[in-house]
UniProtKB/TrEMBL annotation:
Keywords assigned: Coiled coil, DNA-binding, Transcription, Transcription regulation
PANTHER family: GNTR FAMILY REGULATORY PROTEIN, TRANSCRIPTIONAL REGULATOR, GNTR FAMILY
PROSITE patterns: HTH_GNTR
Species the sequence originates in: Halomonas cupida
Record InterPro entries: TF_FadR/GntR_C, Tscrpt_reg_HTH_GntR, WH-like_DNA-bd_sf, WH_DNA-bd_sf
Source taxonomy: Bacteria, Pseudomonadati, Pseudomonadota, Gammaproteobacteria, Oceanospirillales
Gene Ontology molecular function, alphabetical: DNA binding; DNA-binding transcription factor activity
Coiled-coil stretches: 182-232
Keyword Coiled coil carried by entry: yes
Protein name: DNA-binding transcriptional regulator, GntR family
SMART domains: HTH_GNTR (SM00345)
Length: 237
């Protein structure tokens, strides 16, 4: 990533770093569907797993709640939230609007240094086309979002881009098994190819448009699949 958060990380105390690590681990587990909707996130079990007190677990769960990835239910039990395409469609719209304004979100002076990271991600696409692995594809997609958002120096703007992504990342990944695998990997590869060309030209507005168009194309594919699934459910009902 162009944006270097090393100094901010170093300013955190040991306890804060550990809490951040736990939060990231839990968040990624949710986004990669390790934890399915409704799964219980037990403070005591997680504290035992990570070898910490309940305090950092509680803080991590609170962040997940604020990002709508978890919710507190009756009896103070925290569970992974459910999700569906229809209710979160507006999040895609917001993401597309922000991507069109990418050049106005405080990009780093030498933002094009993301090229190396993008090329590394592009190299991961070819093996995936021949050897389907849902988690690897999910991690690739997540890494692409991190690289893309990493060009933004404004901490708040970058956090918003990531939070919006986390809210909807599970939708696409959960539907991939019902879609054409090779086409989905190719869609990521094509976005990377076009992005690399925009980076080469140092055209950040074009980079934002490419990301916006990729999101828009993804939405259209999800809309078609969602309609097909609703039709199937109606027929079965």
């Amino acid at each position: 990533m162009v944006h270097d958060s090393r100094q901010r990380w170093e300013r955190l105390g040991a306890a804060q770093r550990r809490t951040e690590e736990i939060y990231v681990t839990l968040r990624d587990r949710i986004c990669l569907l390790h934890y399915q909707p409704g799964a219980k996130l037990s403070e005591s079990e997680l504290a035992a797993e990570f070898g910490v007190s309940r305090t950092p677990i509680r803080r991590s769960l609170l962040r997940l709640e604020l990002e709508h990835l978890a919710e507190r239910r009756q009896g103070m039990q925290t569970v992974v939230t459910s999700f569906d395409f229809a209710s979160l469609k507006d999040v895609y719209v917001i993401r597309m609007i922000l991507e069109e304004q990418l050049d106005r979100l405080s990009p780093a002076p030498q933002w094009w240094k993301i090229e190396e990271g993008y090329r590394a991600l592009r190299q991961q696409c070819e093996p995936l086309m021949e050897s389907p692995d849902l988690e690897t594809l999910g991690r690739l997609h997540l890494a692409l979002q991190h690289e893309h958002a990493g060009i933004i120096e404004n901490d708040r703007a970058r956090e918003i881009l990531m939070q919006l992504y986390f809210q909807i990342s599970r939708i696409w990944l959960s539907m991939v098994p019902r879609m054409d695998w090779r086409s989905e990997v190719e869609s990521v590869a094509n976005e990377l190819d076009q992005s690399l060309e925009a980076i080469k030209q140092r055209d950040i507005r074009q980079l934002g448009r490419i990301r916006k168009e990729a999101i828009e194309a993804n939405v259209k594919r999800l809309e078609r699949l969602d309609a097909e699934l609703e039709l199937e459910a109606t027929r079965e009902g």
